[in-house]
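Chapter summary example: a protein plus 5-amino-5-deoxy-1-O-phosphono-D-mannitol.
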Amino acid sequence: MIPPACPTPLQVAAARGQLASTLVRMCGIVGYVGPQQAGDVVMEGLRRLEYRGYDSAGVAIVADGELHQRKKAGKLANLSAELSSAPLPASTIGMGHTRWATHGKPNDRNAHPHTSHTGHVAVVHNGIIENFAGLRDELESRGVEMSSDTDTEVVAHLVDESYERVPADHPTRLREAVRRVCNLLEGAFTLVITHAAEPDTIIGARRNSPLVAGVGDGEYFLGSDVAAFIAQTREAIELGQDQICELHRERGITVTTFDGGAVEPVHYTIDWDDAAAEKGGYDWFMLKEIAEQPAVVADTIRGRLTDTGGIALDEVRLSDQDFRDITKIFIIACGTSSYAGMIAKYAIEHWTRIPCEVELASEFRYRDPVLDRSTLVIAISQSGETMDTLMALRHAKSQHAKILGICNTVGSTIPRESDAVLYTRAGVEIAVASTKAFLAQIVACYLIALHLASVRGVKWGDEVAAIVDQIRSMPDAVERVLDTMEPVRTLARTELADVQQMLFLGRHVGYPIALEGALKLKELAYLHAEGFAAGELKHGPIALVSEGTPVVVVCPSPLGRDSLHSKVVSNIQEVRARGARTIVIAEEGDELVTPYADHVIRVPRCPVLLAPLVTAVPLQVLACEIAAAKGLDVDQPRNLAKSVTVE
Ligand code: M6R
């Protein structure tokens, strides 16, 4: 019997109203010690991490035995302006933070860093200190006054007090002070901490929240992800759960557990190109990332087919026998990644005959899913840090299911906690709206499905190889779509920029693409956009259609499965009869659909199951162009963040 999910301390606290003023966040964090101007290095890191949150930003440095800080609500540009009018003094140590708030106002007062009452300690934080209310009460009973509404501030005061209690001749006094405080904290947190009396030391700590360290030549970095320091060094260190990392100008990097035990750091090389974190001449990162998709699809396949027709998984802690023993598959993911999972379901069930269910990670563990040792759970995540997916993964693990991660971020938490991993090789994705990572996820799912089919003897090696060859032709197909996007841009700018709502229809693998098209439009252009299974239309949603309503239809190949094409053509006629303006994504040469389409967007002919790789692209372009035409920030849409590290 699986116990019902117990409320976490956070839920209990929320129920008691203790979190009313708490600021929960998932943010970008940077730390630096080294010979460069720390303020500049930190600001450059924040610029590259701004996609993680852009409600407020702040920076702190230590100079001449004093902490100096600047912080500002709003985008990083506001902080830059503040620094121009009030520059920071020269320093070789610094930290910074860019914030995405879920509770409480994103104002100057609540922006990070937060400092202790003495002004000696500065802290930036990602996550939530669940027991902050009790800690705050204790601090206040000792006469400490709070100057923000945040849970983070208690950490600054506690570290300050703890530092005073560690003997002054302790060789690693700040690290020891932080270690003691970490053991008092409950919840999820990444912390970066500095002390005015320690101009050569910066400390990072993590529990259930991401943090990586970078190793340069006599300089050291901390970041929520490697994008923070990718321009400076390619050498990184993975930091594990409940670990503290000390960056010291002379001693270098030392990693310990919260108990003080030594940890041998795991170094790895970042293979992302620094240019990936630059726009490269495009107006938006999203445009650049859309354009990179042919290469991303090719990279995700490259070198992965073994002699026996199997797939070379990047990190495999599962045997072929484990794969043979699987009787059921669950795919868990959120947002766009969940739509990749929906597409995977069609491929997995068709190629392997294993039952497969796709579940939103945020719902999964709360409905008591039936899992056992013969269940494979595939967790799909671009960031590898999405808390909903991570918690669903942990639930599946606790039920002894095997976990396979499909992830884009090497060394992130989801792959580290999975039994096997297939990395999508999309490179760093900066735009908040996912594009190239989505296509890479779809390809990775195909490879997993083929691996399962091969290992379980459902398909021969040559059959697998034939499908892999078809996948190999997809980068060219995606390129051809990209080459023909001008009419889509024109349509977006001339006819669609002012519409109030848009509907998206599809069947079979076209259905998740319709959902993805609607999500892209919602998040980028703030439009009411809905995706539907085209067959469901007549069961209610068709009431949304009125004169002029734009309806985008993902039309399957006329050569495809059974009578899907004719069914979709009927659906197009149904909405058209009610006044819809139809925009149809159709295969080259499909003239059957032309009479019913106000606009046809052509995509190359390709096998039915692979079609999402081409049909997704015009919808990405459409959403991007509509948002740009409306004068919106394409890369950083309002209210969103790239990595959703809270539940
Ligand atoms: O990093 P993940 O793939 O786990 O993220 C999942 C979703 O948060 C993400 O796909 C989100 O829906 C994007 N904004 C979509 O463009």
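Key point: The two ends are 25 Å apart (CA to CA).
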